[in-house]
Amino acid sequence: MIGKLFLIWLWLFVATGLAHAEDITPLKSVEGDYVVRDFKFTDGETLPRLRLHYTTLGKPVRDAHGQVTNAVLILHGTGGSGHQFFRPQFANVLFKPGGLLDPAKYFVILPDDVGHGKSSKPSDGLRAHFPHYGYGDMVEGEYLLVTKGLAVDHLRLVMGTSMGCMHSFMWAEEHPAFVDAAMPLACLPIQIAGRNRMWRKMVMDAIVSDPAWHGGDYTTEPQMALRAASDILVIAGSAPLPMQLDNPTAKQADATLDGHMKDYMGEMDANDLLYQVAASGDYDPSKNLGKIACDVMWVNSADDFINPPVLGIAEKMVKQIKHGRYVLIPAGPNTHGHSTHTWAAIWQGDLAELLKESAKR
Fold this sequence. Notes:
Layout: H1 4-11, E1 29-40, E2 46-57, E3 71-75, H2 88-94, E4 107-111, H3 135-149, E5 157-161, H4 163-174, E6 181-185, H5 194-208, H6 223-236, H7 240-246, H8 250-265, H9 270-278, E7 295-301, H10 313-317, E8 324-329, H11 344-358
Parallel strand pairs: 3-4, 3-5, 5-6, 6-7, 7-8
Antiparallel strand pairs: 1-2, 2-4
Helix pairs in contact: 5-6, 5-9
């Protein structure tokens, strides 16, 4: 099962993943693993073999100097994997023939981040003895996969949703000459604090305080912890208008919630979830936004619980990005809260503008 936490977030409007195999758009893709030997994490821990799984679409094109000119890196959200972008609301819009990211034109790279999907993660066997990774380690893994694993020396575009949005900001800061354009979707380029930090800490506390967790060495999943974490994710991922329209009575709302929790509770791994949520602790690109040299099209939605526009942060921060533009999508019946980031039809016009403008530089 791929990213069951992520599947819960799909329904909760936090992310969009592989809920049903029949929903996946058929695409000619290539999957593989790149193994990094003796990967050293920021805190000093080392993993002898870090497996980084990936999926690609299309083929790289090189110019007369041998530089790749058509690579697009798309980064997933917390609990997800590269396969989340095969969902129709994303793939059928962007990857279709003639679409903005048509694989006939672009080499699309879809990694599974450290701790996610088919990449190395705690549930592979190490459990809570798995190295404690942060966003810095995850971005370093992405960079090694792209440059060493796939021999790509330049990115036409880096884009990402939620956690991938935050990683996009980090890519643009840490590798300014490597990227032509960046499209962060659904995040803020500041340290995770306030309510955003609080709900994440609630999830982590729910796991480690469950007596059945046993310091991560449980033999059966700590059900109280996972139920509490799932309930918190319901609130964090809430999108008031679509949830009200889909569940207009108390009976329907209760039945919908119970049904999804019953389906997914047995597929979540507490250690994986704990590590995935905790990884954001080292994130704070706010001091280096001025280093970003590429064109940036930053898109949030007004009904996003996790990045509420009332904070007014984005409007201030975008001024520090030389070639940056911030777009706030108004809430409405066709938006999906935080996961509006994956409904490409809503913001594909902004992506088209970004690709056009960045091609001029």
